[in-house]
């Protein structure tokens, strides 16, 4: 059993947080092989949109920082009537992309036979190691999403077989029995291929790759990840040693919330970081997390213990944001829910359910609802209007992350 850790300090004991003028955000992407260039473009484009909370965002050019890292500046300035208690002071944020797309590409299978093997491994593990009932108890939608590739493949094979049988039953005597069977088989296979292609475009193979990678995480089969975690920790410490900023936030999306856990845990236990952060707390933001997909695996003991330590850490400010429309996340589910360590978990993370449906115009929202997998990326978008969550105001705006964390208690 892990050694006891003091519970998080109460809000009343936390001193007033000074205004933020400089911030550093270390960002962990989800399971996406496109890397830093794609995310720099995405954040730049979204930052150029009118910000519903007021202010203006200007994103700088992407620069390499050594072999593994990329970074760029994001400048927020007051504009368009920033109101209320929002300070009207400019803020510069250094965004650091915590690269691991090379590891992702090594697990991005493209060959049909490799995908079929991964398909089989995932569903055997779901039945044998996790259990459908346990997943259903935590979030039925997440279970349905996990089963979606299997259901789609079975439906595709059934439709292909039915069409082939229907063609074979046609009274086309001129073709002969052998020719008719050949035509029927060809039509069935063509239909199956077309449906598989449609499924791939809809993201079903992406889902399967995610689930297989999560299984590999739980079984310790991701080569190079331990070394990458050490590199991440060293980089966070070295950047703050070389160029101290007012606050540091580590943010992850989707599977990025899984790979960042042991990095944040190692960082918070490092004496150098503790000395650097004396008197200040470290921010952690997780978006669209899918922790139970990993914590329920028998081999993920070290991961569960790291989550337990983080849940009770007195110097961590951890906000977890999920959304009901997101079919992949476990909305408002505690990271250790359903595990033997759940009763020992501390008060972190503080959870917020993003009310995206209130933050988009009706026509825009109707289009979003038609593409549920794309809804998994809403956390990274600038909404049409203000609501209860705005990533760009949170990561780049003038309000301290710790203050936003404290405000989430009232939501």
Automatic annotation (TrEMBL):
Keywords: Membrane, Transmembrane, Transmembrane helix. The chain crosses the membrane at residues 142-170, 182-207. This is Alpha/beta hydrolase.
């Amino acid at each position: 059993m892990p050694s006891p850790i003091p519970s998080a300090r109460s809000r009343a004991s936390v001193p007033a947080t000074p205004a933020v003028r400089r911030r550093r955000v270390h960002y962990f992407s989800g399971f996406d092989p496109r890397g830093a260039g794609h995310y720099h473009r995405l954040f730049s484009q979204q930052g150029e949109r009118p910000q519903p909370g007021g202010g203006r965002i200007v994103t700088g050019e992407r620069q390499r920082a050594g072999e593994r890292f990329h970074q760029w500046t994001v400048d927020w300035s007051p504009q368009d009537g920033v109101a209320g208690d929002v300070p009207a002071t400019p803020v510069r944020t250094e965004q650091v992309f915590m690269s691991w797309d090379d590891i992702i590409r090594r697990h991005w299978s493209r060959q049909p036979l490799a995908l079929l093997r991964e398909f089989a491994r995932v569903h055997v593990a779901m039945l044998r190691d996790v259990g459908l009932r346990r997943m259903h108890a935590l979030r039925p939608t997440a279970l349905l999403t996990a089963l979606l590739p299997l259901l789609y493949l079975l439906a595709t094979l059934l439709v292909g077989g039915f069409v082939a049988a229907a063609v074979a039953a046609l009274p086309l005597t001129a073709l002969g029995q052998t020719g008719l069977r050949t035509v029927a088989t060809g039509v069935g296979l063509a239909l199956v291929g077309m449906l598989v292609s449609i499924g791939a475009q809809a993201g079903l193979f992406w889902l399967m790759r995610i689930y297989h990678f999560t299984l590999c995480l739980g079984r310790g089969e991701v080569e190079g990840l331990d070394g990458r975690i050490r590199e991440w920790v060293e980089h966070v410490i070295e950047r703050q040693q070389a160029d101290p900023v007012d606050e540091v936030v580590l943010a992850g999306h989707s599977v990025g919330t899984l790979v960042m856990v042991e990095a944040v845990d190692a960082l918070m236990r490092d004496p150098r970081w503790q000395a650097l952060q004396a008197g200040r707390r470290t921010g952690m933001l997780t978006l669209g997390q899918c922790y139970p997909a990993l914590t329920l695996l028998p081999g993920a003991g070290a991961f569960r213990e790291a989550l337990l330590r983080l849940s009770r850490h007195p110097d961590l400010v951890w906000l977890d944001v999920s959304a009901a429309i997101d079919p992949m996340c476990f909305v408002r589910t505690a990271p250790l829910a359903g595990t033997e360590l759940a009763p020992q978990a501390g008060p972190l993370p503080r959870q917020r359910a993003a009310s995206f449906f209130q933050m988009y115009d009706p026509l825009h929202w109707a289009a979003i609802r038609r593409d549920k997998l794309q809804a998994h990326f809403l956390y990274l978008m600038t909404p049409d209007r203000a609501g209860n969550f705005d990533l760009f105001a949170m990561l780049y705006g003038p309000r301290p992350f710790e203050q936003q964390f404290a405000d989430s208690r009232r939501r």
